[in-house]
Amino acid sequence: GAGVSQTPSNKVTEKGKYVELRCDPISGHTALYWYRQSLGQGPEFLIYFQGTGAADDSGLPNDRFFAVRPEGSVSTLKIQRTERGDSAVYLCASSLGDENTEAFFGQGTRLTVV
Amino acid sequence: TQLLEQSPQFLSIQEGENLTVYCNSSSVFSSLQWYRQEPGEGPVLLVTVVTGGEVKKLKRLTFQFGDARKDSSLHITAAQPGDTGLYLCAGEGGSNYKLTFGKGTLLTVNP
Lengths: 114, 111
Known about the structure:
The structure holds 2 protein chains of 2 kinds. Chain A is mainly β.
């Protein structure tokens, strides 16, 4: 596709459940980022992939959060044992990589944990 | 930890007015990007500044990177209702290519 695609656009889940959020980056972009944005805040870095590997996962809040990018394209953010505090918009972005950090964002997945 | 502080947090002005928003840090950034975000959408890149003292213009928007590459400003001339949105600055601070975002300035331009 022409842009970064995220699915689902909205997800409501019960506390304690497991969720997966998907990101399909722009074709050819080697760098992929996950951010979390709470209401009234700027995006908060979670994890950065260069190719298949997680180059920086320092933003993942705890071990309930995990992300993969097995073939260097699509990425999945996985959240185990969801908590109400996980409710936020999860944004994915991609860039050409290497020294080009100009990021193109998807529309986000709004996660609500009830 | 590199932090970016944006000010003001909220700004409400009338159509036709000029405004400036600021992005400040104690850290040096390799580059700094400005984004605009509308409700329900992801941020959209407006500009990237790389060189200290650099000025870039995008129609009625003027972006400046501080000489020391620690701060930046965005000036909008003759604001229009279509300029309404959340303006975010993001700094890239080194070899890890991670972007650090400020909390944003929420701009409302009233007709």
